[in-house]
């Protein structure tokens, strides 16, 4: 009987939970106040974790938050290793998840189309 989730998916979910908690409780960088981790993708050999983050305000520039996460990656990796108790802790690579900004832009386009359609029926 096949497993529901592969080891990389289970470990990715655990990495996401642990990193989110560490980001909330341990990291005190003001550039990360509006950052939220959204997903983790692990390589097949579990050596690299691509961690996606988003910002609460989609109009904010993601580069300062990316720089802060990159700077804190060694600290986060060491804390992650202690929390997860795994032999090899994956290398953390951060990337901005702009799906919220895309969703916001799509919602605005839809609302504009609805408003334009309503103005034509008056």
UniProtKB/TrEMBL annotation:
Q: What is any one GO biological process for this UniProt entry?
A: maturation of SSU-rRNA
List, alphabetically, the GO terms of the cellular component aspect. cytosol
Compartments annotated for it: namely: Cytoplasm
The alphabetical list of record keywords is:
Cytoplasm, Ribosome biogenesis
Q: Tell me, what is one Gene Ontology molecular-function annotation carried by this entry?
A: ribosomal small subunit binding
Report the principal subcellular site: cytoplasm
One Pfam assignment:
RBFA
> Can the keyword Ligase be found in this entry's annotation?
no
Keyword Metal-binding appears in the UniProt entry: no
Q: What does this protein's UniProt record list under function?
A: One of several proteins that assist in the late maturation steps of the functional core of the 30S ribosomal subunit. Associates with free 30S ribosomal subunits (but not with 30S subunits that are part of 70S ribosomes or polysomes). Required for efficient processing of 16S rRNA. May interact with the 5'-terminal helix region of 16S rRNA.
Q: Which family does it belong to?
A: Belongs to the RbfA family.
Subunit organization:
Monomer. Binds 30S ribosomal subunits, but not 50S ribosomal subunits or 70S ribosomes.
- Alphabetical list of NCBIfam families matching this protein: rbfA
The identity of this protein, by name, is: Ribosome-binding factor A
Q: Quick one: which gene encodes this?
A: rbfA
């Amino acid at each position: 009987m096949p497993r529901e989730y592969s080891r990389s998916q289970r470990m990715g979910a655990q990495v996401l939970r642990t990193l989110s908690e560490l980001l909330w409780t341990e990291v005190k960088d003001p550039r990360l106040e509006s950052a939220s981790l959204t997903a983790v993708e692990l390589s097949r050999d579990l050596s690299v974790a691509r961690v996606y983050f988003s910002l609460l305000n989609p109009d904010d520039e993601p580069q300062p938050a990316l720089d802060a996460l990159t700077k804190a990656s060694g600290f986060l990796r060491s804390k992650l290793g202690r929390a997860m108790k795994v032999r090899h802790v994956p290398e953390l690579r951060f990337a901005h998840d702009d799906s919220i900004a895309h969703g916001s832009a799509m919602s605005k386009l839809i609302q504009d189309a609805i408003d334009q359609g309503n103005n034509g029926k008056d």
